[in-house]
Amino acid sequence: MHKFSGAIDINFMEDNSSDINGSDDYFDFQGLCTNDENKDFNRIFLPTVYSFIFLLGIIGNGLVVLVMGYQKKSRTMTDKYRLHLSVADLLFVFTLPFWSVDAAIGWYFKDFLCKAVHVIYTVNLYSSVLILAFISLDRYLAIVHATNSQGSRKLLAEKIVYAGVWLPAILLTVPDLIFAKNRQNWTIGFRFLHIMVGLLLPGIIILICYCVIISKLSHSKGHQKRKALKTTVILIVAFFACWLPYYICLTIDTFGVLGLVRLDCQTDNTMHKWISITEALAFFHCCLNPILYAFLGAKFKTSAQNALTSVSRGSSLKILSKKRAGLSSVSTESESSSFHSS
Question: How many Cβ atoms are within 10 Å of 192's Cβ, its own excluded?
C-alpha cells in the first residue's frame, strides 16, 4: 500500500515494492532518483513515531470522549466540537498500526482493508482541520459578538458542523478512490486539493478569527482575559507549527514534479525524507488537540476527575455485586445441601 503524501494508492497490489512515503508512486523520472537510504530510514523512523502517536492519541482522545459522554447534559458548544474532533482523531490513530506495518515490512493486508484505511485517513485529514476552523469561528462569535451570538453558535455546533465538516470530508474521499488508478494526473490533483482544503482554507479562517480575538482581548483587563489571550496564541502557534512544515515540503516537491522547480536526485531524496518527517509532525497534532482544546480548561480537569471516579466506582460496584452474587450462590447451595442431608 502506497501513501503518496496524503493519499493511499489503492493499486498497491500491482506493485510488490512498498514505500510508506510513496516515492515509488511519483513519475518515472523521479523513480530513478529514489534510493534505499530513504526506505531504510522510513522502516525505522515511521513505525517508531506512529506507535508513539498511537498511544498518546488513544489515551488523550479516549479520555476526551469519556468525559464528554459523562457530562452529556452540561456540554457547551465548544465541548461539542471537542467531541467531534476527538472522534475524528480516534478514527485516525486506529489506522496508524497499519501504517507502521506497511512502513516496516510492506502491505500484507487485504485490498478492501487498504480502501477502508484510505477512507478513514482522508476523512480525518479534512474533518480535523475543518473542525478546528469551526472551533475558531465559535470562539470568534463567543468573544467578539458575545451578546447576540448564542443562536448562531448553537446552529453551527448542532447542525452546520455536519454539512460543513463531515459531509465534505466524506465526499472528498470519492474522487481519490475513483481516480487513484491514474497515478500521474491524480497525484497532482490530490495534492492541490490537499493543500487547499487541508491548509489554506481552514488556515485563513483560523488566522483571521484568532487575530480578531487577540485584538479584542488585548484591550481587555483581568486575569481570565490574559489567560484566554495566552491560550489563543498557543492554539495558533500549535496549528501552524504542526502543519505548515509539511505543506511547505509538499508544495516544493509538487513544484518539482511539475517542473517549476529543478530538483536534482540528492535534493529530491532529501525532500522525500523531510516529507516523511514533517508529515509525522503533522500527525502529532491529533495528540495535541486534547491538551490544547480540553486539558487547558479547568472545567475539563474537574469533569475528567469526576468521570474517572465514576467509572472506577462503577467497576468496583460491579465487582462487589459479582462477589456478593457468588457468596449468595454458595450460601444457597450450602443451605440446599444441608436441607437434603437432613
Answer: 11
Residue 2: strand, helix, or coil: strand
* More confident of the two residues 303 and 216: 216
Single out the residue of 146, 148, 152, 291 nearest to residue 217, CA to CA. Answer: 146
CATH of domain 2-304: 1.20.1070.10
Percentages of the chain per state (helix, strand, coil), in multiples of 5: 85, 0, 15
Task: Report the distance separating Cα 235 and Cα 26, nearest Å.
Answer: 35
DSSP E strand boundaries for the chain: 2-3, 8-9
Cα gap 65→220, rounded to integer Å:
33
- pLDDT, tens only, 139-158: 888 888 877 888 888 888 88
Which residues on neighbouring strands pair with residue 2, listed in sequence order?
Answer: 9
220: left (phi over 0), alpha (psi -120 to 50) or beta: beta
